[in-house]
Amino acid sequence: MPTAIVTGATGINGLALIRTLSADPKTWTQIHAVSRSALSVSTLFPANVQHVPLDLLGGVADIAKALKQRINELSNDAIYVFFAAYLEQETEEKLSDVNGALLRNFLEGVRGAGLEKRLKRVVLTTGAKYYGVHHGAVKVPCEEEDPKVVGPTVPRNFYYVQEDILIEMSRGQSWDWCTAMPGAVIGFAHGNFMNMASAIAIYASVCKELGEPLHFTGNLPGYTTFDTHSSAKLVAEFEIWAALNEKCHNERFNIVNGDQASWQSMWPKIARHFGVRIPPNQFVMPAPLPGKYKIAQDPPLAAHADKMGLVGVLEENAIDCRVDLVKWAEREDVKKAWAEIAKREGLKDDALKRATWVFANMMIGKKYPWVSR
Hints:
Helix content: 25-40%
Number of helices: 13
Organism: Morchella conica CCBAS932
CATH class of the largest domain: Alpha Beta
Structural class: alpha/beta
Oligomer: single chain
Low-confidence stretches: none
CATH topology of the largest domain: Rossmann fold
Strand order of the largest sheet: 3-2-1-4-5-6-9
Radius of gyration: 22 Å
Largest sheet: 7 strands, parallel
Protein name: NAD dependent epimerase/dehydratase family protein
Order of helices and strands: EHEEHEHEHEEHHEHEEHEHEHHHH
Domain PRISE-like Rossmann-fold: 4-277
Number of domains: 2
Number of strands: 12
Distance between the termini: 33 Å
CATH architecture of the largest domain: 3-Layer(aba) Sandwich
Shape: globular
């Protein structure tokens, strides 16, 4: 019977994995939830889940010791790792260094604990950045066989770094790997702010508090184009299936809901939910708080431009916001309004500061579609 280890277990993806695994106790005899925080898990995790508080940037010896203490070394159960740990960083170089270290340290800890001989597969959770969506327009739909986005002006991609670590460390061993590549993940984890839904909810709530309309924060092309999303529950179910399916050996997979969404249909629903209005002529009005961020390198689509007949017609590679959420979150009236909302509703008063406004600017301020299949 298999044993599961989930890293990043308090995040959106990790928590969905924990909940899905724990709902099938006949298959999964042991479930270990790895996270940095030594928090009380009585309400966060189901009763059949063991919490392993671990700092994956700590010493490998400490990781090995903690795993050995928690996981029965006398058992013959096969071990499957679901790696969903992630630490946001200021630059892509740091992102690669830190998140690469998370994975390498953990796998070396597994080896040091004497558990590698039982390890069968590591399932790595990645995302749309695998295709370079943060670098500009991509070929759509994105497909698993598309080449990696590399070049002299392209920063390191931490997903490539992590996948390379898996390839390197699994070579000659009895275990293998597979990679899941979801779109923007729809889910919830308490206290996790790497979540566009949290940013939008704060923005809409403050707009209502201030009596302001809900201006779309991106641009007209982005408002009317398509995106692909992934339910956290669907991603978890897929990754568990992929872990146990022999045919998923050393493969990567797109995992999306199968439907496409556009802001022109979602934004009015958000406005209705929060009880705010959208200006009927919002794209004719002057931008309330504009922000434009030029992306230094060519967009990933440029690598396909010659064979697609798109040479010389690709747009300027930039994120274009009608409401720059980074600037918006620094407004004094916004800070005051959020403080009042948080106090009245019993919410975290630091949520405005901790929300990932840069990420929200990128996801909402892009002008191009992201669709995978």
